[in-house]
Target: Ribose binding protein/LacI transcriptional regulator
Amino acid sequence: MTATRQRPFRRLLSTTVCLVGATAMVAGCTSNSPEESSSSGDGGSSNAASSNDDSGDTVTIGFSAPAADHGWMAGITNAAKAAAEEYDDVDLQVAEGTNDVSTQISQVETFINDGVDAIVLLPFDGAALTPVALKAMDAGIPVINVDRQFDSPFAARSTVLGDNYGMGVSAGTYICSQLSDTPNAVVAEIAGIDSLPLTQERSQGFADALGDCGLKVSNRVAAEFTVESGEEAASNLLQAAPKIDAIWNHDDDQGVGVLAAINNAGRDEFIMVGGAGSANAMRSIQADDSVLKATVIYPSTQAADGVKMARLLAQDKAMSDLVEVEIPKQIVLNAPVVTKDNVDQYIDSAFES
Model:
């Protein structure tokens, strides 16, 4: 983060305009028939001949991600498989999900030895997987890095990321809009694992957005992205804070436990905003049957976008909605707020907690 930061409300607006629905952008860029071009540059000139979705040379893509022991992570793998199934020219080789770094390194080495055309990799540990990703790149196999970045810019051809800071900004901006008539509002935060940079980024964005409307976090606890930890952390929070006006919970998986604790305590004087965008959270928002009134998306479609980008790279194509003839080096997906008013736009692509 630079010393001079944009005001959160302005930052959120620019994020929405510039990065809106990068998932949709990738899907659109692989389905639009581009205008004819006289350009003879390589790396994307083939787009002028036909739609990027037209069947081409079969490409083999290796995919590796951590174990699906969390709803969001399961959603990542399921979405990647679904994206590959859209194409008859994609052979997706899916390695078994693992939280063992050595096993994941071995999986990537197998992809390299098999000579796959591209690798989509969500590393359990970005630093630990950097050397083998570099090895793949040195072998001429483009790597699409998903969610957790490598230590070297040379370890990936392209990176697809969610916006953790933006999640906090979105959550804080929404709460500001709901509490505009409550200047001394008590705002609470149930974070994820505090030692993780992603949690720190989410909390910073939240604090910055609240500060823009004169609010601050009055009570904060941390959980561990699990149902059990969410229930425990929320119980502690509710005991410590007899009055609350709004809560932001960073993660909808741990939010199952958070809502259980809230129901057990019989508390309903506040609104709650979730995080990540699970289907069960959206169904609750849709039904308006709890304190949960919104959730902020952290897309579980990142690897699906990675698969589509890997296909384009392997077939020497680019994103046909862009003038640029190369696949972007990095895409940061938007972090929109889902409410009862717009939930129908997002629920079909949501993951199950």
About this structure: The first strand starts at residue 59 and ends at 64. Confidence is low (pLDDT under 50) at residues 1-50. Residues 29 and 321 are 5 Å apart (CA to CA).
